Amino acid sequence: MTSPSGAAIRITIRDDSGLVFEFETADRASSLSVETDVSRSVFIAKRKVLLDDITRIRKSLYATDEIACGRAIHTLYKLGTTFLNEVFQDPWEIREFCAAACPPRWDDTMSPPHIVMHAMMYEMLPLEVLPLLSLEPPRSLIRTPIELAEAVHCFAGLGASVQRVIRRINAPGSGALPHDDKLNVKMFQFGSLVGVEEIKNFLTRHDRVRLESPWPTPTTQRKEFTERLFCHLTAPDKSFSGNSHDPPDAIHHFACHCDTGASNDKEHHFRLAATGSSSEFKITLGELYACRQPTKMTLPLVFMNACESAGSGASGIASFPRFFLFNGNLGFIGTEIPVLDSFAAEFARTFYSEFLGGKRLGDAIHCARWRSLMKPKSHCLIGLMYTVYADPDLSVFSDQAKST
Fold it and tell me: Are strands 161-166 and 9-15 parallel, antiparallel or unpaired?
């Protein structure tokens, strides 16, 4: 795969006297500045309405044949277009700019164009699902895989690799994950989920992964859960049992239940449980912040494969990405709306296959979206709801980024 030349488009969102959206090509040859006439609170509300609407129609995003998937594409296109028309007086100039900077690429040997968005958490555009990369609507009837591929290139999440960057948070640098001949991976589980065993077995068998038995275990006590959880999150050089290991953890994978629906983001939480246990352990965002202590260590990449893990509550503040990046983690991957456990496991397996096989992180996520979309008789658009707060050039081994 050819080396990327940097971002095709940089989007910076500022809140001065009003929300200002600045679009710039990587070579700075072309730029566009757009000030919306809606207030920040209205923008947040419109963004939430869009995600709520997508949540309501999410079953259609797990389409089966091309025709059903085509209907879902039209629905998603209409929702995204409505959002753009409500927020921007002239969304066509934005679409024209983005379409020119990110033309369709049909060659699998090339990395997708890269769009990076810098904004405060509550000002993030739901970029992945917006039809920014084409001025034409999808054809009225989609009947073949080729027509399907042509139609979805309008969405930024399928026509490009999208990176979200939270302004005013100093994220760790890029490069390669810590490794020897393998990566150390910790898995945090809700054991009764269907996909937990599937992803555990996949990672256990992979020759580039050293996976510990998932945590919590049946012997985990409620009174010690919060303290032990935070120790596991912030001590990448220690195993679940407390033994030192080198290299430190590269990835923390969560397969769990998550809820970001409360208006107060401190009440957002995820739940873990041991396999075969009826006891659940709940940890709120407020409790995580209460336990947080500064660290000079770069903490692992977090893949939170859970319902609404990257979602926004009524306050408009996406909760978990901000916490983990604020905490010093290398990056965060998560979903903005609820996803089926079976799909979450399949998406994670595809991502890890590509990432551990040598692709950069951004390319691996992009590939997982396309694989789930183009799977015969099971075309699925829900992969668009995975968001990436991490350097897309992050790789398993440093020399891969140079040679692939």
Answer: unpaired
User: How far separated are the first and last CA of the chain, in Å rounded?
Assistant: 5
339's tokens: 């996803």
Measured in degrees and rounded to the nearest 5, phi and psi for residue 94 equal -70, -45
Tell me the per-residue pLDDT of 175-220, one tens digit each, with 9 for 90 and over: 789 889 999 999 999 999 988 999 999 999 999 999 999 999 999 9
Distance separating alpha carbons of residues 9 and 97, to the nearest angstrom: 9
Please give the Cα distance from 98 to 94 (Å, whole number). 6
| The amino acid at 103 | P
Note the pLDDT of residue 277.
Answer: 86
* Residue 216 preceded by cis peptide, ω within 30: yes
Paired residues of 88 in beta bridges: none
- On whether the CB atoms of residues 253 and 245 are closer than 8 A, the answer is no
Task: Work out the number of other CB atoms within 10 angstroms of the CB of residue 1.
Answer: 16
The Cβ of residue 225 has, within 10 Å, a number of other Cβ atoms equal to: 16
Q: Count CA within 13 A, CB hemisphere, residue 332.
A: 25
CA 386-372-91 angle, to 5 degrees, is 55
What does the DSSP 8-state code read for residue 107? Answer: -
pLDDT < 70 stretches in the chain = 1-7, 105-109, 171-174, 307-318, 398-404
Q: What is the pLDDT of residues 262-312, one digit of tens each?
A: 888 899 999 999 998 888 999 999 999 999 887 888 899 999 997 655 554
Residue 83 three-state SS: helix
What does residue 350 show for φ and ψ, rounded to 5 degrees?
Answer: -65, -45
Instruction: Sort 82 into a burial class: Cβ within 10 Å, 0-12 / 13-18 / 19+.
Output: middle
The Cα–Cα gap between 266 and 160 comes to: 33
Note the maximum CA span of the chain.
60
Nearest to 164 by CA among 401, 400, 391: 391
Q: Quick check: pTM over 0.85?
A: yes
Please tell me the distance from the alpha carbon of residue 159 to that of residue 291, in angstroms, as a whole number.
Answer: 40
Nearest by Cα to 186 from 204, 207, 171:
204
